[in-house]
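User:
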Amino acid sequence: MTDPQDPRITLLLQRMEAGDESAGAALAPLVHAELRRLAGDLMRGQPAGHTLQATALVNEAWIRLAGDGDVAWRDHRHFFRVAAKAMRSILVDHARRKAALKRAGAGERVPLDDAIEAYEKRSIDLVAVDEALERLAAVDGDLVRLVELRFFAGLSIPETARVLDVSTPTIERGWRTARAILQLQLSGEELG
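Assistant: Predicted structure:
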């Protein structure tokens, strides 16, 4: 398994940006294991029966990352931050499509026991989290990046500190703050 901080990653990202088509093929195996780990962490937080698989999430993220010629890759940290954001976007889009399909069947009667069971088993509403993050971005974009790396990419606090190039205590404080703000927003309260 390649270290996500392998200096070859930054070099290959720079070569991709310069138009070297072979760089993407060389980069893929270096970042695949880390992307797969991130996707696996994300998928563990999804409800049972989630139809998107970790491999599909990695593949979709890779297509977005490798195909986006507009990104000026600075280094491996930047790449994994963008990867976390891409995975967030993919999961939220998937949740929105799934919710739209459910709404299309609105009006169908559901037995009360089934409705109660579904409510009790419900997990995190990714669309609501995404909307809360959009509101948070207007106040503090750094907290949004921290949440993307911790929640969507599944990075630990020390890993997040390395990617964002800040201290571990800074990430710990930011994580507490972001969770508190998001909890308020998800409960229906607004930022003051």
